[in-house]
């Protein structure tokens, strides 16, 4: 008697479509968003550093005592617009002797020998916090400092500050515009990827409808799978982004000055959330579309 070969047919599970390429496509899309997000973070950090490099020269009245100089330094340090570094107020004292020596080192000319006296004044150099760096704020700071007893004059390069603020504003608008376009493109890409993946399941969805399955019962496995795909894709994209940035910081030491770990971790969490939300909503829209189609439209 001839032996009959039987082949076990694996039952197709609802929502169990091949997902490796889906995860790969979503991960790649999220990774691109992450790269641009890191560009925005580093650009923001660079902008903050540039703004915090703004300095004001506060020239003092002549013949102030050490007690008066110390009082002025404490007054300046207590101002809310003074930048801090490692809990230290960025207030630097320059005596008129130090100023004369710096001028001699730069130009090689000894004006004291010609004039017979040092016409310079003692001064404090104040570094302004980035949050108070607009032109209007700096003018207000200048007026505030000039009202302090013992201050003769306050100077800063106003034209340079206006140029810096104008350029930073233009670059910020340009980057945000690119970011908005990129996010829209990525959403469309993820949506189309999941729609194509679910296209192969359209007849299975119809079969479940014909046997009386409710819409919620049909949608649940697809939505769960899409949400997990988004989470896994976000984790993969975050891991790739973290590895790339660590390599970049190692190779380009100066780049580490722009590192902001808190914002980087927030970006990685955002990628996971974005992947989950977009995956869920895209699958929901696609499944609802196939549930409403007639049999003729499915072909």
Summarize the amount of helix as a percent range: 55-70%
- If you compute it from the alpha carbons, what radius of gyration comes out, rounded to the nearest whole angstrom? 32 Å
Shape: rod-shaped
Distance between the ends: 44 Å
Description:
The protein is α+β, with helices and mostly antiparallel strands. The chain folds into two domains: 20-48 and 165-298, no CATH class; 55-155, 2-Layer Sandwich (Alpha-Beta Plaits), CATH 3.30.70.3040. Helix content is 66%, strand content 8%. The chain contains ten helices and six strands; from the N terminus they run H-E-H-E-E-E-H-H-E-H-E-H-H-H-H-H. The strands form two sheets. It has a four-stranded antiparallel beta sheet with strand order 4-5-1-6. A two-stranded antiparallel ribbon has the order 2-3. Strand 2 and strand 3 (88-89) form a beta hairpin. Helix 1 packs antiparallel against helix 9 (261-292). It is rod-shaped. The model is unreliable at 1-12 (pLDDT under 50).
What does the secondary structure layout of this molecule look like, with pairings?
Elements: H1 20-52, E1 55-60, H2 66-77, E2 84-85, E3 88-89, E4 91-94, H3 96-107, H4 111-115, E5 123-127, H5 135-146, E6 151-155, H6 158-199, H7 202-210, H8 215-251, H9 261-292, H10 295-298
Antiparallel strand pairs: 1-5, 1-6, 2-3, 4-5
Helix pairs in contact: 1-6, 1-8, 1-9, 6-9, 8-9
């Amino acid at each position: 008697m001839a032996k009959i070969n039987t082949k076990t047919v694996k039952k197709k599970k609802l929502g169990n479509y091949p997902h490796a390429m889906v995860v790969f496509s979503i991960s790649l899309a999220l990774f691109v968003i992450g790269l641009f997000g890191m560009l925005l973070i580093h650009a923001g950090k660079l902008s903050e550093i540039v703004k915090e490099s703004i300095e004001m020269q506060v020239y003092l009245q002549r013949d102030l005592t050490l007690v008066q100089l110390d009082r002025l330094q404490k007054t300046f340090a207590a101002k809310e617009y003074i930048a801090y570094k490692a809990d230290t107020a960025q207030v630097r004292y320059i005596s008129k002797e130090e100023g004369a020596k710096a001028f001699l080192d730069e130009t090689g000319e000894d004006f004291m020998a010609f004039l017979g006296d040092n016409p310079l004044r003692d001064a404090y150099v104040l570094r302004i916090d980035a949050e108070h760096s607009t032109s209007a704020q700096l003018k207000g700071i200048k007026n505030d400092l000039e009202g302090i007893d013992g201050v003769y004059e306050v100077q800063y390069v106003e034209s340079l500050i206006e140029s810096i603020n104008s350029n930073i504003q233009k670059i910020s608008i340009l980057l945000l515009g690119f970011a908005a376009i990129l996010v829209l493109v990525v959403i469309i890409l993820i949506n189309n990827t999941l729609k194509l993946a679910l296209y192969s399941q359209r007849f299975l969805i119809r079969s479940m409808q014909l046997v009386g399955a409710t819409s919620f019962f049909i949608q649940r496995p697809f939505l769960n799978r899409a949400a997990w795909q988004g989470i896994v894709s976000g984790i993969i994209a975050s891991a790739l982004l973290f590895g790339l940035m660590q390599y970049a910081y190692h190779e380009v030491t100066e780049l580490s000055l722009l590192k902001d770990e808190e914002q980087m971790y927030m970006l990685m969490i955002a990628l996971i959330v974005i992947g989950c939300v977009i995956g869920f909503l895209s699958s929901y829209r696609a499944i609802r579309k196939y549930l409403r189609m007639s049999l003729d439209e499915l072909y």
